[in-house]
């Protein structure tokens, strides 16, 4: 039996980072490309000083049509200092069993361009992985109007039953890009209940 040849080595090397102005001027004569770049906030003169984080997650929210109007499940993530991370880790949210819900993320691109940004969430129970969510956020530039971006994830259904309700679930959430840069990394927990 012959063995397969080894996979080819990748020789891709990313180019040097460019400013928003430099990207805006590339292929400026291509009208459709110019419109696409404008949709990402890549327009001449839109460059902002490149200081501080490129990406700031503002909040993560759980949205469900069955949730009472006066009830919200929102994580304020604007400050990810160590005391805030410690407080989030100790916070346990209650999610109603057997309901449809989706996750909504609000974030801001502060400068530059981010590409291939993903939200990755690993859920464990008794230290055993029970679920993983890997959701593409996309590629973005600074919002042309300076407003934050809002991304609604696919609808899911929460588990139900006595076994699902017993105990709590620990979650590790991360926001990363194609290059492996980690923009946010935090832990939290939830439990399932008969009511919100």
Question: What do these coordinates show?
Answer:
The chain is mainly beta and 196 residues long. It folds into two domains: 19-48, no CATH class; 52-193, Coagulation Factor XIII, subunit A, domain 1 (Coagulation Factor XIII, Chain A, domain 1, Distorted Sandwich). The chain has four helices and ten strands, in the order H-H-E-E-H-E-E-E-E-E-E-H-E-E. The strands form two sheets. Strands 1, 2, 4, 7 and 8 form a five-stranded antiparallel sheet that branches. Strand 9 (168-176) and strand 10 (182-193) form a beta hairpin. It is globular. The termini are far apart.
Short description:
This is Rho GDP-dissociation inhibitor. The protein is mainly beta and 196 residues long.
Q: Which spans of ≥5 residues are poorly predicted at pLDDT below 50?
A: none
Count the strands?
A: 10
- SS content category: mainly beta
Question: What is the average per-residue confidence, as pLDDT, rounded to a whole number?
Answer: 85
Share of β-strand residues: 35-45%
- Let me know the largest β-sheet: 5 strands, antiparallel
The residue fraction in helices comes out at 10-25%
How far apart are the termini?
A: 59 Å
- What is the chain-wise order of helices and strands? HHEEHEEEEEEHEE
Shape label? globular
Keywords: Cytoplasm, GTPase activation
GO cellular component, one term: membrane
Protein name: Rho GDP-dissociation inhibitor
GO molecular function: GTPase activator activity; Rho GDP-dissociation inhibitor activity
């Amino acid at each position: 039996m012959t063995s397969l040849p080894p996979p080819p080595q990748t020789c891709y090397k990313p180019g040097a980072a460019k400013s928003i102005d430099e990207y805006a001027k590339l292929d400026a004569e291509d009208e459709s490309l110019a419109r696409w770049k404008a949709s990402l906030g890549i327009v001449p003169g839109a460059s902002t000083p490149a200081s501080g984080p490129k990406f700031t997650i503002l909040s993560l929210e759980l949205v469900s049509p069955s949730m009472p109007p006066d009830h919200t499940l929102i994580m304020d993530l604007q400050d990810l200092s160590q005391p805030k991370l410690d407080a989030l880790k100790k916070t346990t949210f209650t999610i109603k069993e057997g309901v449809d819900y989706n996750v909504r993320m609000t974030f801001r691109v502060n400068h530059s361009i981010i590409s291939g940004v993903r939200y990755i969430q690993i859920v464990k129970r008794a230290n055993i992985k029970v679920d993983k969510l890997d959701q593409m956020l996309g590629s973005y530039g600074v919002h042309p109007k300076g407003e934050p971006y809002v991304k609604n994830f696919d609808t899911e259904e929460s588990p139900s039953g006595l076994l699902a309700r017993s105990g709590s679930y620990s979650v590790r959430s991360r926001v990363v890009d194609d290059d492996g840069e980690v923009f946010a990394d935090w832990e939290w927990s939830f439990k399932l209940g008969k009511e919100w």
